[in-house]
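Annotators were shown the component list below and the corresponding predicted structure, then asked to write short factual statements about the assembly.
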Amino acid sequence: MDIWQILQYGFIQRAFVTGTFVAILCSSLGLFLVLRRLSLIGDGLSHVSFGAIAVGLFLGFYPLYAAIPLVVLGSLLIIKLTEKAKVYGDAAIGIVSSFALAGGVILASLSGGFNVDLFSYLFGNILAISEFEMVTSLVLSFVVLLVIYLFYYELFSISFNEELAQVTGIKTDRINMMLVILTAVTVVLSIRVVGIMLVSSFLILPAVTALQVATSFKKALMFSSVSSVVSLVVGVITSFIFNLPTGATVVMANFMLFVLALGYAKYAGMR
Amino acid sequence: MEDIISVEDLSFRYGGNEAVSSVSFSVKKGDYIALVGHNGSGKSTLIKLLLGILKPSTGSVFLFGKDLHDFTHWNKVGYLPQNIGLFNPLFPATVAEVTALGLVSQKKFPKRLTTEDAEQVNQALVQMKITALSNKLVGELSGGQIQRTLLARAIVNQPELLILDEPVSAVDAETRKDFYSYSARLNREKKTTIILITHDISHSGGYANKLLFLDKRIIFYGKFGEFCVSKQMEEQFGIEIQHIMCHQH
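Structure shown to annotators:
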């Protein structure tokens, strides 16, 4: 079967369209998170999304509907714990994510395990994305990307140095909160593509790949998106041909690109 | 003359310790103030309080006649922080991109830079003699080059108030001399108000018209000439050091 035949399938087309948007979204946001040393917030919020999806499945809602507000709530709780309770940021992520994960496990146990449903959220199933899920992902991705575009200089500025950003009149608290909320929405959108277990790699790997070879901030954003989309396309096609789990194959493609970029940067004396 | 900065009974506690204690002073337009004091005397803390980076335990700060809480004209302020070593060496921004960040304060939402802004950035790079580094990543620069880049960023919006926290700590003698003559020219020709933190008391009289000596509280605030004959100075340094410092500039 050649590539053109593969592309004729509706489920492959939906996977590419949704995956491309989510890939650009994750890689753009991921660059700001990596530079702000907030990479692990993606990991923490993916654990929160496990608990949130379990709540949705337990109550009989469409799980991603429950996940978006609950994960945003989790992200705000992390910020408030850091600000008001004098808990370190990484410790706050640990507290909220372990609480949500424990809650999810208890709900799964009470309802007899949710079986296949929960498994598909844990490891993603991009090839099973419905038209409704595709449209929802596109609309939300567009909104998040628009917010990133409108607040580009604020995000760039606080990523470079928060004190300097403050002295240019940027309300750093509000931008930080916005960044965390955008991350929460992005994590939920990525669950169908790579799954709860692999979301954070989708945020981190394209950004660190771009950092190896970028020669300006704008190019770093561009390389991060290109690397993420290439990994997605290569990962989806490879997984289809060799019958491998798609989310994991996409992450492996991301990792390979990172190794290539690292090797190139060393060879070219860039780092 | 207009007060650019007015500070009333400002204190800051960190843990149980008082880092700045009941400080009151005002800065007039066109002042060039050398802010001096021993290590740990609260100089950088005071600057951070003036810029709203730290919240005071008590007291208030007015910038350009406005309470700091309501102050929005950040395009009038340029700031160079002390710890350039804290910048992420992997940060993927060029010298021109970092300099351009100094223009963000004068932009309305959604903030966008124009071709005129690019020209302004270019002028700041020329003034700091780093045009050749324009497309270089900040992570590839030496300490002195980073400091020049951040200075370019601080002056790119032609601020009325320039606050510099040890701007020449990581640079060679020639750059230091260049910087002092440049800052003196800014102060003289454009009436830019400057506050400069320095350890170099002996040379501060050569460019600053006032000296603020801090040791958690204000020990002395006034003209350099008055400082040289002040009792506080004699108590702080002894008469021999006083003689050396006041006859060097």
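Statements collected:
1. The mean pLDDT of chain B is 88.
2. Chain B touches chain A at residues 48, 51-53, 72, 74-75, 77, 79, 81, 86-88, 90-94, 97-98, 101-102, 104-105, 107, 109-113, 135, 137, 153 (CB under 8 Å).
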